[in-house]
Structures are given as C-alpha cells and as structure tokens.
Write a structure and sequence with these properties.
Elements (H helix, E strand, L loop, with lengths): L8 H11 L3 E7 L2 E8 L13 E15 L2 E6 L3 E4 L5 E17 L4
Antiparallel strand pairs: 1-2, 2-6, 3-4, 3-5, 3-6
Length: 108
C-alpha cells in the first residue's frame, strides 16, 4: 500500500466534515500519525492526556490552550508541543480552531 505524501487542506476539510467528528486522522504510519482537529467557537475540548508526544499547528481560529497548569493564547500560526501524559486542552474558543495534530509514535 502506498502512503500519500500530499494532503491539500481543502481535501482534509472535506474528509473532516464527512467524518462528523472533531478529530479526523488522515495519516498513520508506524512512527507517527496525523489528523485534523476542529473545535467550533464556544465548545469544550474533550481530550485527555495521551500516551504519545504531540504537536499542534493552528491553521486558523483563536482561543486559549491549557498546558500543565498554564494558559496561553493561540491563534493562526501557533505551534505547540505536548510531551506524553501532560494535561492539556484548548478552551475559551473565540473563533473556530482548525488544527493539524501530529502524534509520535502513532496515536494508540
């Protein structure tokens, strides 16, 4: 099976919408996985700590990010790293957050 190497944002947004979920995984290989995470304004981020290291890249939107007892503002262009098992979540979402998420190794 050939693994895709190009992921146009329009294609990811369409697949995400069709999934009907907040998180849509679009890549899974042994050492990492990636997905598109969309949190509408005013919603709560339901996630809990993961068993994998994680990177977030905010494509668009605005809100806050709680990380291990600290809050930071996030907006388009924000890049966040979260080591495995650290408590974290997005909150106070003012504008829909559209986020690329990368797990290493792949999310279990």
């Amino acid at each position: 099976m050939t693994v895709p190497f190009n992921f146009p944002l329009d294609d990811l947004l369409k697949a995400h919408a069709e999934s009907g979920k907040l998180y849509h995984e679009f890549l899974r290989v042994p050492d990492m996985s990636a997905g598109l995470y969309i949190l509408p304004a005013g919603t709560q981020d339901p996630q809990s700590p993961h068993a994998e290291d994680e990177m977030y890249y905010v494509i668009s939107g605005k809100g806050q990010f709680f990380y291990d007892g600290e809050d930071v503002e996030v907006e388009a262009g924000s890049t966040l790293y979260v080591p495995k098992t650290i408590e974290h979540r997005f909150h106070s979402i003012e504008e829909d957050l559209v986020i690329i998420v990368i797990f290493a190794p792949q999310e279990s």
